[in-house]
């Protein structure tokens, strides 16, 4: 059933992206714009706008489709030529591209090399990764941490059966989310609740509806909410440097100006920048496009 729903989601998303109708032709091989697509969470939408703005400032035509879906939807769209540019995260992108890889490398340079070889065979170029990095994190309230002496993920092992967990809908099947917590830490929660957003996750934590929630390590709310990330003391999370991926054919048309715009963005972007961009969108009310333009104006 899950696989069937995934196929349907891909087909629906491709129709949304291409504007397909019954009997309509396939999308043109050489679209008039460089088509960026984002995943279905705010940080990635902001990152896509940052990279897209760099391309706009080089005078190249850009279109952006936000919130297309999860990796199961966006990655096939990139490989099938429905979209042209995706901004991903190194470790998760590699795990998705090579799910049966026997010994995935741990260093970013080695991870990048394997991802480059893998995606190159699928018509996708993997550009240089940024210093900016965002990993999955697992948070509890500061009161909960103090009351139960919980500071590391391994501290949850004896407690999890009595706790409720909240995270994104895809979390139970992700190797770096619930699936990984079970395999690496032996943690199995008594209840699991699907959260519509990271903001809802923090609200549920503070209301006591859940005791553990998944948040990104760059979530700007971590600086103001009474929650704390638990240390990943057994190294579940891989390195997750931001990395743009581009259809190889796109470079054939748009050339070095496109490559230079994307590479220069990665060369500038830091984790602190990523936190600040998230703060601008999540806490200050700017749109991803507004935050991206302001970031470039400061460069």
From TrEMBL:
InterPro entries recorded: ABC_Gly_betaine_transp_sub-bd
Organism for this UniProt entry: Blastococcus saxobsidens (strain DD2)
GO molecular function: transmembrane transporter activity
Taxonomy, superkingdom: Bacteria
CDD domains reported for this sequence: PBP2_ProX_like
The protein, known as: Putative glycine betaine/choline-binding (Lipo) protein of an ABC-type transport system (Osmoprotectant binding protein)
PROSITE patterns the UniProt entry points to: PROKAR_LIPOPROTEIN
Domain spans labelled ABC-type glycine betaine transport system substrate-binding: 32-297
GO CC list: ATP-binding cassette (ABC) transporter complex
SUPFAM superfamilies for the chain: Periplasmic binding protein-like II
């Amino acid at each position: 059933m899950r696989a069937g729903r995934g196929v349907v989601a891909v087909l629906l998303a491709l129709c949304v992206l291409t504007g397909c109708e019954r009997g309509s032709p396939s999308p043109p091989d050489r679209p008039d714009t460089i088509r960026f697509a984002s995943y279905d969470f705010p940080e990635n939408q902001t990152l896509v706008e940052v990279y897209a703005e760099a391309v706009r400032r080089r005078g190249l035509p850009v279109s952006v489709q936000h919130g297309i879906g999860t990796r199961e939807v966006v990655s096939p769209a990139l490989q099938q030529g429905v979209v042209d540019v995706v901004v991903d995260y190194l470790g998760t992108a590699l795990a998705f591209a090579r799910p049966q890889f026997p010994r995935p490398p741990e260093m970013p340079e080695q991870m990048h090399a394997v991802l480059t070889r893998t995606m190159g065979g699928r018509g996708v170029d993997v550009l240089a990764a940024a210093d900016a990095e965002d990993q999955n994190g697992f948070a509890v309230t500061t009161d909960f941490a103090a009351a139960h002496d919980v500071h590391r993920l391994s501290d949850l092992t004896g407690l999890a059966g009595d706790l409720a967990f909240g995270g994104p809908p895809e979390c139970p099947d992700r190797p770096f989310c619930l699936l990984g917590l079970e395999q690496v830490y032996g943690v199995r929660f008594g209840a699991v609740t699907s959260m519509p957003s990271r903001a809802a996750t923090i609200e549920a934590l503070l209301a006591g509806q859940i005791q553990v929630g998944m948040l990104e390590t760059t979530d700007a709310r971590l600086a103001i909410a009474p929650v704390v990330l638990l240390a990943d003391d057994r190294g579940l999370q891989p390195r997750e440097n931001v990395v743009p991926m581009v259809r190889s054919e796109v470079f054939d048309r748009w050339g070095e100006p496109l490559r230079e715009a994307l590479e220069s963005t990665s060369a500038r972007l830091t984790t602190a920048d990523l936190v600040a961009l998230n703060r601008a969108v999540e806490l200050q009310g700017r749109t991803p496009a507004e935050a991206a333009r302001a970031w470039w104006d400061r460069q």
